[in-house]
Amino acid sequence: MNAVLSASVSASPPHTDVEAPLIKFLGLAGYETTWRAMQRFTAQRTPATRDEIWLLQHPPTYTQGQAGLPEHLLNARKIPVVQIDRGGQITYHGPGQIVAYLLLDLRRWKINVRQLVRLMEQSVIEILAAYNIAASGRVDAPGVYVNDAKIAALGLKIKHSCCYHGLSFNIDMDLTPYDFINPCGYKGLRVTQLKDFGVDATPDQIEQSLAKQLLELLAACRSSSFNLT
């Protein structure tokens, strides 16, 4: 992975005795090199390894989760398809969509996988609320939805109580490639993006907001001041 960072955020979150994850903004990065870097980071980490959150965009790529069924890819149309180790079915990544990869020791933050899913959903819901957009998660199909259209998708890999992968949030992108898959394994699932609601914020601006939300919610979980049940 490109080691050059456009910025980083390293301040500790309030009211915790745990060092905040290091936030890295990685720009546009190839999918497979990023995925392999996450695997290496997780395999090499020790109890003292600081957590990290990577924010970036990918070139056009379909990713198929471990349980992914081939029939959900209707037509790849020359877009690379990468078989990966997260949960879930097929999704699309492309420029104008921000991706947040959470490389966390869940024991450190006193959360389980279900709570982490809720935390990721809540981080996007709160950003949308700031633009007066009502959004919600779904227990049966993790992600964030606005008027039944999916605006953010989630997927995780857990290894020895540490996670990687994370969430993707559609900001201002070409949504056409979603027409050639059953997004997240759901035939006919509508997909939307922030731009469709008249918001002209750039992906870079939303990355900053998302980093802030994730840090604040993790800190709240650690201090038991936020309920993610």
Question: Could you give a short description of this structure?
Answer:
The chain is α+β, with helices and mostly antiparallel strands and 229 residues long.
Draw up the topology in text.
Layout: E1 7-9, E2 22-28, H1 31-44, E3 52-57, E4 61-64, E5 81-83, E6 90-93, E7 97-105, H2 106-109, H3 113-130, E8 136-137, E9 144-146, E10 149-159, E11 162-170, H4 203-222
Parallel strand pairs: 2-3, 4-5
Antiparallel strand pairs: 1-2, 3-7, 4-6, 7-11, 8-9, 9-10, 10-11
Helix pairs in contact: 3-4
Order of helices and strands: EEHEEEEEHHEEEEH
Shape from CA axes?
globular
Strand neighbour order, sheet with most strands: 1-2-3-7-11-10-9-8
| CATH architecture identity | 2-Layer Sandwich
- The residue fraction in helices comes out at 10-25%
Strand content range:
25-35%
CA radius of gyration is 16 Å
Number of strand elements: 11
What is the CATH superfamily label? Bira Bifunctional Protein, Domain 2
**Which residue ranges are poorly predicted, with pLDDT under 50 across at least 5 consecutive positions?**
1-14
Give the overall pLDDT as a whole number: 90
